[in-house]
Amino acid sequence: MAYGQIVDGGIVTETRQALTNLHAALATAGLAFPDIVKITVYLASMTDRLAMDDVYIATLPEPLPAPTCFAVGELPFGARVELDAIAYRAS
């Protein structure tokens, strides 16, 4: 997939891809999903919240990172979901 392309398939597929991308970004810093302490989720529509939550819960390990979710007017490249995460590495 080229930069700026969004996967087809709706919110479930986009959320899975966003989490895959997040996993890859964390790995470049030597981190993983258990290191996430906070995630902000931006949705193009709150009607997608429950479907996004299902993927979030199925993908991330317990204890789940604290989420904050916002509906926004528009996301880059016409996406339906975008994630912003804070991870912490214990020294």
Describe this structure in words.
- Helix content is about 30%, strand content about 25%.
- The chain is of the alpha+beta class and about 90 residues long.
- The chain has a single domain (about 10-85), classed as 60s Ribosomal Protein L30, Chain: A, CATH 3.30.1330.40.
- A 3-stranded mixed sheet has the order 2-1-3, with helices on one face.
- Helix 1 (about 10-30) crosses helix 2.
Q: What would a concise description of this structure say?
A:
The protein is an alpha+beta fold. 32% of the residues lie in helices and 23% in strands. The model has no long low-confidence stretch (mean pLDDT 93).
Task: Spell out the blueprint of helices and strands.
Elements: H1 11-28, E1 36-43, H2 49-59, E2 66-71, E3 81-87
Parallel strand pairs: 1-2
Antiparallel strand pairs: 1-3
| Arithmetic mean of pLDDT | 93
Structural class: alpha+beta
CATH H level: which superfamily?
RutC-like
CATH topology: 60s Ribosomal Protein L30, Chain: A
Strand content: 15-25%
Give the CATH architecture. 2-Layer Sandwich
The profile of the biggest β sheet is: 3 strands, mixed
| Element-by-element helix/strand order | HEHEE
Biggest sheet strand line-up:
2-1-3
- The level 1 CATH classification is Alpha Beta
Relative helix content: 25-40%
* Uncertain stretches: none
C-alpha geometry: globular
What is the distance, rounded to the nearest whole angstrom, between the alpha carbons of the first and last residues?
36 Å
Put simply, the count of helices is 2
Number of strands: 3
Radius of gyration: 13 Å
Counted up, domains total 1
